[in-house]
């Protein structure tokens, strides 16, 4: 595609100096980056002036949409008052105090304390240390193993990538680190269909893999289980309804801590403040990031349950922290974001209006000759593209069908993400019915072009 001289110059400099996350740089150098220059509501514009419906909310972040003035004003005001001070060594800052109280209010009752980081990855790193320290203090030093899931995603740092189950990441850098093991994911199409059971039966079977792993490792050696309520980066894998309650039962049975990674599912995405509430679990930890500030500034954290806090902070120091833990400007934006969410009653709106509307509109794609399993949970949705729908025949990896469809989306003014043969979305929570109709219409166009 020919582009303006300004875009060409930007692309050249980008390719010359900027190492992008999760990007094929050979391909990037050939094609040039699409440079996004501004955003408003659910739309972004690129440097060529093209308007694009952002059905991924940036990267699962921009829940309240682009251009929210109250968030911008909160950041500006706090920058003027106090751009930075740390919360180490008996100091604190007002926005972090206010945010902590707000988080205690909107999270499930077992949570009254929060530890801050700047990202989801750091939050999960924090948890690894907290879990192990908890069991040390409880006098069960041998409880070190954390169980995660294949195709789960918990970040890119050493601990985050180890807790996650992405083989492509494990292959690069000798991961996972010792003491982290994985079980299969509750993905019905991949792991359930061949068993010839119903989805609900499969949910119990998939949860049972946790119990099998606990027995294999030794029940007295297992410290915790970590999972995303709905796997996001793995391709929006929505578990059967029976799965999470059974996981909770197994964790309770063996006294194992449950970590709910709410980096995507938190802050209203599933139509409840936190995904664990939709799934019916009572986690001991919740990690979060992204939607806490609608992505306007980097902020992450870990909600720590009372029973863990009572042990972990009983004897003074837990030697852990980041310079930017409780960053005043990020916390001020988070406070403004949560206040805006409350003012707009966005969580109930998602639950009772936007998510049911999206579910119906998205499911209409199931009649497309390429598509099956167009499903959603709250404001995340995914579909599978099949090579031959009549024979239930999957595409080969080398067909690269996801990336082809993603390209057609971009060309048609839509951001969808591709994960293998799955196309996924997580639009801003503030999206209107008309915008959902537009999104699904554009998705259909891109699928037509992929045929
Ligand atoms: N956990 C989940 C469920 C995520 O989806 C992500 C990022 O997408 C992370 C953790 C890592 O967050 P970050 O990229 O902010 O480090």
Note down, in words, how this protein is organized.
The chain is an alpha/beta fold and 451 residues long. Helices cover 42% and strands 17% of the residues. It has two domains: 137 residues, Aspartate Aminotransferase, domain 1 (Alpha-Beta Complex), CATH 3.90.1150.10; 275 residues, Type I PLP-dependent aspartate aminotransferase-like (Major domain) (Aspartate Aminotransferase, domain 2, 3-Layer(aba) Sandwich). Helix 11 links the parallel strand 7 and strand 8. Helix 4 runs antiparallel to helix 14 and helix 5 runs parallel beside helix 14. The model has no long low-confidence stretch (mean pLDDT 97). Bound molecules: pyridoxal-5'-phosphate (PLP). Pyridoxal-5'-phosphate binds next to helix 6. The site of pyridoxal-5'-phosphate has 15 residues, from helix 6. One of its GO terms (biological process) is biotin biosynthetic process. Its cofactor is pyridoxal 5'-phosphate. This is Putrescine aminotransferase.
Question: How does the SSE layout of this entry go?
Answer:
Elements: H1 5-17, H2 25-31, E1 36-40, E2 43-46, E3 51-54, H3 57-60, H4 69-81, H5 94-106, E4 111-117, H6 120-137, E5 145-149, H7 158-163, H8 167-170, E6 180-183, H9 188-192, H10 199-217, E7 222-227, H11 243-254, E8 257-261, H12 275-279, E9 285-288, E10 300-305, H13 306-312, H14 328-343, H15 346-363, E11 371-377, E12 380-388, E13 393-394, H16 401-411, E14 414-415, E15 417-419, E16 422-425, H17 433-450
Parallel strand pairs: 3-14, 5-6, 5-7, 7-8, 8-9
Antiparallel strand pairs: 1-2, 2-3, 4-10, 9-10, 11-12, 12-13, 12-16, 15-16
The site of pyridoxal-5'-phosphate has 15 residues, from α6.
């Amino acid at each position: 595609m020919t582009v303006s001289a300004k875009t060409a110059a930007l692309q050249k400099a980008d390719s010359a100096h900027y190492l992008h996350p999760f990007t094929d740089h050979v391909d990037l150098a050939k094609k040039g980056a699409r440079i996004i220059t501004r955003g408003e509501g659910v739309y972004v514009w690129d440097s060529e002036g093209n308007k694009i419906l952002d059905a991924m909310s940036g990267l699962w972040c921009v829940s309240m949409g682009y251009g929210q003035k109250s968030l911008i004003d909160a950041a500006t005001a706090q920058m003027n008052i106090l751009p930075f001070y740390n919360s180490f060594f008996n100091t604190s800052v007002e926005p972090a105090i206010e945010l902590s109280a707000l988080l205690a209010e909107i999270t499930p009752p077992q949570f009254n304390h929060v530890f801050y980081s700047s990202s989801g990855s750091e939050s999960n790193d924090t948890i690894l240390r907290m879990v192990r320290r908890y069991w040390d203090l409880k006098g069960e030093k041998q409880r070190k193993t954390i169980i995660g899931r294949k195709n789960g995603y918990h970040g890119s740092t050493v601990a985050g990538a180890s807790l996650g189950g992405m083989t492509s990441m494990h292959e690069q850098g000798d991961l996972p680190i010792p003491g982290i093991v994985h079980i299969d994911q509750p993905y019905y199409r991949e792991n359930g269909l061949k068993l010839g059971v119903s989805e609900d039966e499969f949910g119990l079977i998939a949860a049972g893999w946790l119990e099998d792993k606990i027995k294999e490792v030794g029940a007295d050696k297992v410290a915790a289980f970590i999972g995303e309520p709905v796997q996001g980066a793995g391709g929006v894998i929505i578990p059967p309804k029976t799965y999470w309650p059974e996981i909770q039962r197994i964790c309770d049975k063996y006294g194992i801590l449950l970590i709910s990674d709410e980096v995507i599912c938190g802050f209203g995405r599933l139509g409840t403040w936190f995904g664990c509430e939709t799934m019916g679990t009572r986690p001991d930890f919740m990690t979060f990031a992204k939607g806490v500030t609608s992505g306007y500034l980097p902020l992450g954290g870990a909600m720590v349950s009372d029973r863990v806090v009572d042990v972990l902070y009983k004897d003074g120091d837990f030697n852990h922290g980041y310079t930017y833990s409780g960053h005043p400007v990020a916390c001020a934006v988070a406070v403004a974001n949560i206040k805006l969410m409350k003012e707009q009653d966005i969580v109930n709106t998602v639950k009772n209006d936007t998510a049911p509307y999206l579910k119906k509109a998205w499911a209409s794609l199931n009649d497309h000759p390429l598509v099956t399993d167009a499903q959603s949970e709250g404001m995340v949705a995914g579909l599978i593209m099949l090579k031959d729908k009549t024979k239930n025949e999957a595409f080969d990896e080398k067909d690269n069908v996801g990336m082809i469809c993603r390209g057609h989306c971009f060309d048609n003014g839509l951001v969808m993400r591709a994960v293998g043969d799955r196309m996924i979305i997580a639009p801003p929570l503030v999206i209107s019915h008309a915008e959902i109709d537009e999104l699904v219409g554009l998705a259909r166009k891109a699928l037509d072009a992929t045929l």
